[in-house]
Amino acid sequence: MKPFIDLKAQYYDIKKEILSCINEILESSHYILGENVKMFEEEVKAYLGVSNAIGVASGTDALHLALRALDIGEGDEVITTPFTFFATVEAILYVNARPVFVDIEETTYNIDPSKIEEKITPNTKAIIPVHIFGCPADMLKINQIAQKYGLKVIEDAAQAFGAGIMGKKVGSFGNLGCFSFYPSKNLGCFGDGGMVVTDDSELAEKIRILRNHGSPGRYIHETVGLNSRLDEIQAGILRIKLKHIDHYNELRRKKAEIYTKLLSDAVITPKELESAYHVYHLYSIRSPMRDKLKETLLKHGIPSVVYYPVPMHLQKALNFLGLKEGDFPVAEAVSKEILSLPIYPELPDEDIHEIAQIIMRCF
Question: How many Cα atoms are found within 13 Å in the side-chain-facing hemisphere of 23?
Answer without folding.
Answer: 6
